Amino acid sequence: MKLVIAATGASGTIYLQRLLMQIDATAHEVHLVMSGHAKQVAAQELDEFTVPPGVMQQGENNLNVPYVSGSARFDGMVVVPCSMATLGRIASGSGETALLRAADVFLKERRKLIIVPRETPWSLVHARNVATLLEAGAVVLPAIPSFYSRPQSVADVADTVVWRILDQLGLPSARAFRWKDAAGDTEQDRR
Ligand SMILES: Cc1cc2nc3c(=O)[nH]c(=O)nc-3n(C[C@H](O)[C@H](O)[C@H](O)COP(=O)(O)O)c2cc1C
Q1: 125-184: pLDDT as tens digits
Q2: Domain 2-169's class?
């Protein structure tokens, strides 16, 4: 697969880090593009942000990359975490940076674009921008963890979101907790 992983200045660098760790960049072509604010937030939130071997990182203003053109065939793009600022820019059709242009290309080419916003609460502006992206064909997958897998660490909590992103990419994690798979019948079923 050929993938673009993009990050912006929303809280949640751990989602980006955990996603990159769970995609085999030797088996897939993985491009990483981070906004300036994403780098700032990463420095705030993690002791060390690591780009795994094989992942190709490009600057957000570098338009000399394949994924800003519809002629280059890519399979999926994830914006994780996605700020409401970038979400609004994508919804408006802005293509000013490589990150924004790539999202615009994925929408126009009807390729999989997965937006992982992290903001709370939402204004009506946020909700309308999300609706616009849904209408344009994006998958909006909010960074909202689940707890029925009984996560034991912050990384486990983050993985409940990362597993849903991997499912959407068609790269399901063998570690993903799936309802009823792990424990068999639930207590309620047995009653
Ligand atoms: C520590 C920190 C955390 C932030 N968290 C969020 C957030 O969770 N969601 C959001 O939409 N913006 C958040 N912001 C604001 C964005 O970084 C800001 O809107 C920025 O302009 C986004 O730029 P970008 O989308 O180009 O990365 C945060 C900013 C800082 C400094």
Answers
A1: 999 999 999 999 999 999 999 999 999 999 999 999 999 999 999 999 999 999 986 555
A2: alpha beta
Q: With contact defined as beta carbons under 8 Å apart, do 99 and 60 qualify?
A: yes
Which backbone phi and psi does 83 adopt, to 5 degrees?
A: -70, 160
Q: Give me Rg for the CA atoms of the chain.
A: 17
CA of 11 to the centre of ligand 1 (A): 7
Among 39, 40, 41, 80, which residue has the most ligand 1 atoms within 8 Å of its CB, making it the best to mutate? 41
Contacts of 75 (CB under 8 A, 6+ apart): 1, 2, 3, 111, 112, 169, 170
Q: Are 13 and 88 in contact (CB under 8 A)?
A: no
**Are 6 and 103 spatial neighbours (Cβ–Cβ below 8 Å)?**
yes
For 4, other C-beta atoms within 10 Å of its C-beta total 28
Q: What is the pTM of this model?
A: 0.95
Domain boundaries of the chain, sorted by first residue: 2-169
